[in-house]
Amino acid sequence: MKRRGKSSVRQRIARFQKTGRSGGHEEGETGTTRNVSTTSHQILKQLDERDDDDWAEVENESTPLVEMASALNENGSPINADEEQILTFEDFARIAGGVDAASADARVFERIPWVIRKLFELSGTWLFRGLSPGCKPLYRAVEIAIADGNVLDSAIGGLECCRDLVLRYGKTGFWGRWRGRDPGLNYWLGLRAGLSKILCELGYAYHTRFLMGSKLEDAEVALACLREGVTKYRTNLDEDQILQFGKTLLTHYYAVGKIQDLDQCIDTLLTYADAGIPYKNPVTIANIIKYLAEALCARAERNHAESDARMSLLMSQRAVNALPKLPGDSQGWLRAGFMEGLSRSLLVMANLSKESKLALETITEAVAHFREALEMRKLAGAIPRHLGLTRIELGVTLLQRFRVSRTPDDLDAGISELRIAEKELGKANDVDKAVAFSNLGIGYRLKSLVSANVMDINLSVVYLRKALRAVESSSAQYNIKATYLSNLASSLLTRYRLKNLSEDLEECVQRASQAVELVPPMHTLRYKVLDVFSVCVNERSWRLGDMDGLRKAVDLMREVLGTATVPSADRVTYTINLAILLVHLANATKESPSEANDMLEDAIGLWHSIQDQIPPSHPLYLELAGGLSDALFQKYVLNEDPTLLNQVVDLRTRALELVPDERPDRLKYQKALADALISRYRAYSPGNPSDLETAIEGYATAIKYVHCPQSIRYACSISWVNICVQYGHPSSMEAFEFAVEMYRRLAFVDSNIASRVDQLSMHDTGITSSAARFAIERGQFERAVELLEYGRATFWQQHVAPRTTITKLQSIDPLLASKMADCWRQLEENSSQDLRTARTDEWEQLLATDYRNRKVAELSTKWECLVKEAESVLGPTKLSQRPSFEDLHTRIDSRLVVVVNVSQRGCDALMFAPQWPGVRRLELSKLNMDIITVMHNRVDSALRRWGRSAEAQTRHFVTGAKKSVSAGNGAMYEVLRMLWDFIVEPIFSYLQLTPMPLAERPRIWWLLTGPLSQVPLHAAGPYDSPSSLNAGSYAMSSYIPTLSVLSVSDGSFNTPKREPIDVLAVAVPTISYLPVNAIPATKKEVESIKATLESAGAKVNAFVDHKATTSNILQHLSSSSIAHFACHGMQDIYNPIRSALLLYDEALPLTRIATGIADTTIAPVAILSACSTARGDINLLDESLHIAAAFLFIGFRAAVATLWSIDDQDAPLVFREFYSYLCEQGTKEIGLDNTSRALAYALEVLRDSGVELERWLPFVHLGT
Questions:
Q1: Residue 212 lies in a domain
Q2: Predicted local confidence at residue 1107, as pLDDT
Q3: Of the candidates 149, 285, 628, 851, which lies 20 to 30 Å from 95 by C-alpha distance?
C-alpha cells in the first residue's frame, strides 16, 4: 500500500475544514467542528515546520483529529461516496457490523463498497505502523504500540471486517450500481481480486503478531489466510504477496518444523526470483531473494546439503547486489539486514565444511559482515532492540569461531557482545531477552569447559534459567521452550560433571524430559532433545547403578537414529553417543558376559561405521578415539585378550596428543591412557617396565593440572596410590599425601555447605586412615599423626582454620584481618543459607540457589587472594599447610591421648603420654574391618530392639518395660565385650592401668577413626557378672574429633573466669512445628540445675517453653560459661548438616550453630541434654558431623552429649548429680575443668540405681 505523505495529510485536513462538519452532523452542531478545526490548524502549522521525512509522525499525531471527526450520523443518513471523509476505525467497524443485507435500506446498503475500501486503507495504515518501522521517526511510536498490543489487533480487526463484508455482499448483485461511478472502487468489485488482497494482508498481519507474541495459532491462521488468498482467489500474484507468502511459510517451518513448508517456500520464491517479471518495487525483489537465501540456508542446515548452502550464499550475495540505493537512513537500515543474511549463509557453509582452516576463514568473514551490519544500524539510528538482536548474532558467531579456533579471545569477545546485547534489550519483549539469556548461558558453559571455573558454569545455569523464565509465562512456541529446557539440562549436566552435585543431576534429567514432552514426534527438533535426554538419563543411571535407566537411555538414542529427518552429519554425532551408551550398559552388565559382549560388538561396529568420516583433524575424533578405546578395553576385560590392549593404548595415545595442557579435560585422557598401560603391564605378567613407569607418571600429573576438576584429580591420586602400593613404588608416600590433599580439596569453600558434604560422602574411601597405616608400617608414626589430623574432620577444619588465622592477624595487620573476617562471614552466611523454605515458587527458589552458588564462588576466589596475602604476612597457615607433629605434640601437652586408627590395611593405637617424649604404637593385631562391621551391625540391632534407632530418635517420655530390652542388652553386651577384648584391654595393659576410685582415675582422650567413632568404647568391658568392671573403672573417657580441638578449646580462648559465671539454661517441653512427643521433665531439669548453680554463686538465665526462642538463645550463647539445652535433638541421618536442636519457635541446625554464633569470649561448656547430639553421619564417620562437634569447633571447651536417644526422666537425675559434683558440695566455686569426672560420677549414680544398660550408656563427654 502507498504511504501518504505530508501533502496527503494536508489535503485531508483542508477538505474537512472546507465542509466544516462531519458527514453525520447537522449544521447547528458546531462544538465538535470548532475543536476539530482548531486541531487541524495546529497540525497544518506543524507540517510547515517539519521535514518531509517526518510525515509518519504527523500521521500518528492526526489520530485525535480522526477520532473527533466522526462521519457516521446517528440517524443512518447515506454517506456521500464522492467526498472522502475522515472516519475512525471504530466508525468503520460499527458500519460493518451494523449492516444487514436482508433488511438494510438502499441508503445504508450503498455504503458498503466505500466502507470496505476505507476500512482496508485504515487497517493497512495500522498494519504499516506495526510492521514497517523503516524510518526512524516511527521507531519509538512503533515500540510503544507493539508493547501495548493494540496496533496489530486493530489491523487484524479491520482486515477481518473487510473479508467478512466482501464475502457477505459479493454475491448480492448490488455491486453493479457502483460500476463506473468511482474508478477507485472498481478494484473491490472483483470478488477474487479483492479477497486475494485482503486475505494476503490479513495473513501477514497474523504473521507479524506471531513474531511479536509467539502464539502458534497466529502462525497457523497466517499461513491459512495466505494460502487461501494465493491459491483460491488469485492466479497472478504481485511481488508483495509473493514476499508475504514466502516469509510466512518460512516462519511456519521454524515454528512447526514441517519440511513441506520449507520446500514450498523455496519453490515459490525461487520461481518468482528467476521469472524475469518486471517488478514495481526493486526493494521487494531484493527481499524475495534475501528470504530465498534464508530458506535455502535453513534446508542446508536441516539436511546438511552443501548444494543448498552454496545456493544460499549465492542468493545472499545476489540480494545484496539487487538492493537499490535509497535516500536517507533507509539505505543503511535495509543493507544491514541483507548483510546479516549473507553472514548467516556463510555460517552454514562453515558448519558444513570438513576443513577446519576453511571453516575458520568463512566464520571470520561472517564476523566481519555482522560487525558491518551493526555499524550500519548505528548510523541509521536504530533503536536499542534492533542493535541488540544484531549484536546477539555477532556474539553467537564469535562463539562459533571459538569452537573451531579454540582461541579464548573469541570466547571472551562473544560473551562480551552478548552482555552488551543483554543491556540493549533491557526494555524489549521477553522473547527477545530470552534469546540473549540463552546464548549467554551457552557461552558461559563453553567457558566453564575451558576454565573449569565453577563461577562460569553457575552463570551459565543462571542465564539459562532466566531465558526459560522469560518464555515460561509467555505464549512462546513449544520449540523455543524445548530448546531452552534442553540447553539448561546440558549446563546442569556440565556442572554435575565439574562439581558432582547430585541435585544438578536430578534436575538435568527433569528438564531434558520436559523438553522431550514438548516436541511432537515428527518435529525436526525431536531428535536433538532426545539426544540430550538420553545422555542425562545415562549419566544418572550410571551413577546410581540403575540398569533399567541405562537401557532406557540406549532405547532413546536408538529412537533418535531411527528418525528419518536426522541429517547425516548429526547422525555421526548420535552414532557416537549410542556407542558410548552401549559401552556403559555393557560395563554394568558384568553378570551376563555374553550379553555384555554382544553390546560391545554393537558399539565397536558403530565406531567402525563412522571411522572413515572422522579423520584426526575432525573435532569429533577425540570422542571416537575415547569411545572406541573404551569399548575395546571392556572387551579385553571380558575376553582377556591382551592384543586388544595394544589398540587401546594406540588410540588413547593419539587422543592425548590432540588435547592441549590447558584444557580442563586433559587429565581425563591422561588417566585413561595410564589405566590402559597398567592393564597391559599386568596382562603380560610382568609386562614392559616402561608401561608401569609411564602410567605412574600419568597419574602423578594430577599434581600439576590444578585447573582440572577436583574429582578427576582425586581419582588419579587413588589410582596412583593403588599402583604404587601394589608394586612397591618409591613414590608411594607421596601418592598417599597427594590423595589426602585431594580429598580435602573436594570440600573446599567454593560451594555451599550441603555440596561440600555431598562431595565428601561420594568420594570417601578411607584414604586418610590408609595413608596413616602406610606411614605406620614404615615406622613413621609422627607422619601418621600428621596425616590423620590433616585428613579428618575436613569440614570442620575449614571452618576453624580461618578464624585462627584472623585472630593471629588482628595484632599484626588489623585491616587485612578485618577484610578476611568480612569475607569469611559472607562465605559462611551464603554457604549455610537454606533457600528451600524461603521461597515457594520453584523458579524463584532455583534462581536464588544459583545466585547463592555464584556468590559463594566469587567469595571463594576473593578468599583465596586474601589467604595468599595473609601468608605473606604470617607465613604458611593452616589453610594451606598441614600442621607439624611438633606443633600437635605441644598442643596435647601433658594429656594421655590414644588415637585408634582402623583401615583395610590394619589397625593400630598411637598413644601420647606425659612420660613419653613422642608417640608410641601398639598394633591391634586381633582387630580388623570385618570385626568392626560385626560390631556395628550388633549396635544397630540393639538400638532397634530398644526403640532407639536413628529413625526413631526422640527423648522418651514414657519408658516402662520393653519386650525386646533383654535381647537388645544381649547384643550390646556382646559389642562391649568385643571392644574390651580387641581394643581397650590391650591398650590398658600397655599403659599399665588398673581400676581406681573416681577421684584418682586418670583421664584418656580417645580419637577414634572410621566406624569406631560410633561405638560406646567408654563402656567397654567383659561384663561377666552384674558387678563387672568396665573401662570407666580404669579411666575417665573423653572423645575428641581432632587433636586440634584440644588446642582450640584450651588455648585460643584461655581467658580469665568472670565472677559470677553466666549459665544459659534452656527447656523446651513442647513444640508445634514437628510431630514429636512432649518431654515435661525438661522443666524439672532446668529448675533443679538453676537452684544448684545459683546456690554456688552462678547467674542463671533460664529460658523455658515459649521464651526458648532462637533469637534469645543466640543472644546469650556466646557470653555464657555453661550452655545447657534440655530439649529434643534431631540427627538427620540423610543430611547430617540439617541436624538440629529443636527450640520453641524453630530448629537450630548444625550449620547455624557453626556459622551464626560469634567466637566465645571464655572457655564454655555445652550440656546437650537431647537425643543423638553426638551421633554422626554413617557415611562420613571421620567428619564428626554432629551437634556436639559443632559446639567444640566454634570454641566451646567441652560438651556432654548423647550417642542416641535418652529417657526424659533420666536426664534430671543425671544432671542434678553432675552439677552437684561440679559445685563441690555447695561451695562458691564451680570447677569447669571437672566436667568429665562429674559426668562419670553422675552416670555411676544412674547405673547404681538399677536402670537398664540402654539408659546410662548413651551419655558421653567430648573435648577438654
A1: yes
A2: 94
A3: 149
Q: Is residue 594 part of a domain?
A: no
- Cβ atoms within 10 Å, residue 179: 11
According to DSSP, residue 1207 is labeled B
Write 725-730 long-range contacts (CB < 8 A, 24+): 725/774, 727/692, 729/696
692 half-sphere exposure, CB direction, 13 A CA radius: 19
The model's pLDDT over 624-657, given as tens digits with 9 standing for 90+, comes to 888 899 899 989 988 888 899 999 999 999 999 9
Note whether 833 and 901 are same-domain residues.
no
Q: Which residues contact 869 (CB under 8 A, 6 or more apart)?
A: 816
For 593-608, how does the pLDDT look when each residue is reduced to its tens digit (9 = 90+)?
Answer: 888 899 999 999 998 8
Is there a domain that residue 252 lies in?
yes
Cβ–Cβ < 8 Å for 1157, 1114: yes
Domain boundary (382, 401, 420) is at 401
Going 1043 to 1048 to 1049 to 1051, the CA torsion angle's sign is positive
pLDDT at 929 (0 to 100): 93
Grid cell of 399 as nine digits: 562463539
pLDDT value at 693 more than 70: yes
Q: 791, 771 in Cβ contact below 8 A?
A: yes
**1064 in any annotated domain:** yes
What is the DSSP secondary-structure string of 943-985?
A: HHHHT-SGGG---BS-----TTHHHHHHHHHHHHHHHIIIIIH
- Are residues 169 and 242 both part of a single domain? no
1169 φ/ψ angles, rounded to the nearest 5 degrees: -85, 70
Cell numbers linked to 531? 539426544
Do 207 and 325 fall into the same domain? yes
The verdict on 10 and 141 lying in the same domain is yes
State how far the Cα of 1233 lies from the Cα of 1241, in Å rounded to an integer: 14
1099 and 980 both lie in a single domain = no
DSSP 168-188: HHTTSSGGGGGTTT-GGGHHH
Continuous H helices in 452-567: 454-472, 478-499, 502-518, 526-544, 547-561
pLDDT tens digits along 1184-1238: 889 999 999 888 889 999 998 999 999 999 999 999 998 875 445 566 778 999 9
Q: Measured between alpha carbons, how far is 1172 from 1076 in angstroms, rounded to an integer?
A: 15
- Mean pLDDT score, 889-901: 90
Which strand ranges, in their side-by-side order, compose the sheet holding 1259-1263? 920-923, 906-912, 896-903, 1003-1008, 1036-1039, 1259-1263, 1198-1202, 1165-1169, 1122-1126, 1062-1067, 1099-1104
Q: How far is CA 974 from CA 919, 947, 1253, in A?
A: 31, 18, 12
Q: What does the alpha-carbon distance between residue 613 and residue 799 come to, in Å, rounded to a whole number?
A: 54
Query: Over the stretch 430-475, which tens digit does the pLDDT of each residue have?
Result: 788 899 999 999 999 998 887 766 778 888 998 999 999 888 766 5
How large a percentage of the chain has pLDDT more than 90?
A: 36
Burial of 929 (0-12, 13-18, 19+ CB in 10 A): middle
- 0.85 exceeded by the pTM? no
pLDDT one-digit tens code per residue, 1099-1124: 999 999 999 999 999 888 888 889 99
Among 293, 316, 339, residue at a domain's last position: 316
Give the structural domain span for 926.
893-1036
pLDDT at 771: 96
Strands 1062-1067 and 1198-1202: unpaired
**Dihedral (CA of 239, 240, 243, 246) sign:** negative
Residues 966 and 1099 in one domain: no
Do 854 and 910 belong to one domain? no
Count the domains in the chain: 6
pLDDT at residue 846 in the model? 58
- Provide the CB-side half-sphere exposure for 742 (13 A, CA): 33
Residue 977 CA to residue 512 CA, distance in Å, equals 55
Q: Are both 330 and 307 inside the same structural domain?
A: no
Q: Give residue-wise pLDDT tens across range 794-822.
A: 888 777 777 778 878 888 888 998 998 88
